[in-house]
């Protein structure tokens, strides 16, 4: 956590969009003791208990679900069929990337696509300071042992990254990104094509509700698209 605070103290050296990157990587950056966290959790439960008793809460929830359904119905079966042609075509389509991310959440493996997105953004960095700060942020979020969103990499790949993280280059994560890409393509993508989420889309059926349980705070494509210039490659 001390390292995280150091990075936040250096944010004034980065462009405004870099602030978005670090906010998404690290969250708010505020430390909480165990006692403070318990108190905040209790307060949240109490507020939620009061909130769900209000009629307008249920109206807002229904409105939110209706909005999500309306967005999903804008995806035509023809578009969804194209996603099944190749993994590249799925990731190159904005709605395809969003839908695949939603699927990975149901399998508790969304860190893979989030790491891939972070690497795509990292490779577009220009300033040397941006490269250093972003590389360390990605390393702490996805690579180091017991990272919050640690991705599944072999020892050799992790060791190479660890040794070079003090002097990173735009290619520091290439091997790791390729490994994660192959893992998603050969494993997650094949299951995605057989999932209800995808089959409902290509058959034009209304989307079924999915239970999304998150293991920890992490950024998703919906949040990451605030950095517009950084995700243009997929649009």
Automatic annotation (TrEMBL):
One of its GO terms (molecular function) is GTPase activator activity. Pfam families: RGS (PF00615). One of its GO terms (biological process) is regulation of G protein-coupled receptor signaling pathway. GO terms for cellular component: cytoplasm. The keyword Cell cycle does not apply. InterPro entries: RGS (IPR016137), RGS_sf (IPR036305), RGS_subdom1/3 (IPR024066), RGS_subdomain_2 (IPR044926). Keywords: Signal transduction inhibitor. The keyword tRNA-binding does not apply. It comes from the Eukaryota. Residues 86-202 form the RGS domain. This is Regulator of G protein signaling 18. It comes from Phocoena sinus (Vaquita). The gene is RGS18.
């Amino acid at each position: 956590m001390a390292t995280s605070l150091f990075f936040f103290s250096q944010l004034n050296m980065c462009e405004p969009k870099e602030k978005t990157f670090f906010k998404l990587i690290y969250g708010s950056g505020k430390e909480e003791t165990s006692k403070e966290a318990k108190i905040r959790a209790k307060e949240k439960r109490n507020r939620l208990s009061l909130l769900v008793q209000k009629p307008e809460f249920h109206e807002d929830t229904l409105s939110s679900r209706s909005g999500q359904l309306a967005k999903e119905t804008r995806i035509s079966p023809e578009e969804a069929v194209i996603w099944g042609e190749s993994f590249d075509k799925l990731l190159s389509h904005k709605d395809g990337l969003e839908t695949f991310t939603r699927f990975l959440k149901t399998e508790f493996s969304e860190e893979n696509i989030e790491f891939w997105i972070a690497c795509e953004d990292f490779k577009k960095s220009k300033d040397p300071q941006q490269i250093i700060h972003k590389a360390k942020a990605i390393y702490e979020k996805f690579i180091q042992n017991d990272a919050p969103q640690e991705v599944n990499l072999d020892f050799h790949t992790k060791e190479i990254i660890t040794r070079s993280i003090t002097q990173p280059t735009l290619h520091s994560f290439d091997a790791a990104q390729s490994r994660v890409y192959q893992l998603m393509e050969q494993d997650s993508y094949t299951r995605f094509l057989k999932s209800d989420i995808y089959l409902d889309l290509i058959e034009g059926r209304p989307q079924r509700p999915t239970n999304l349980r998150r293991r920890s705070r992490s950024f998703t494509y919906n949040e990451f698209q605030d950095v517009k210039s950084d995700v243009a490659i997929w649009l």
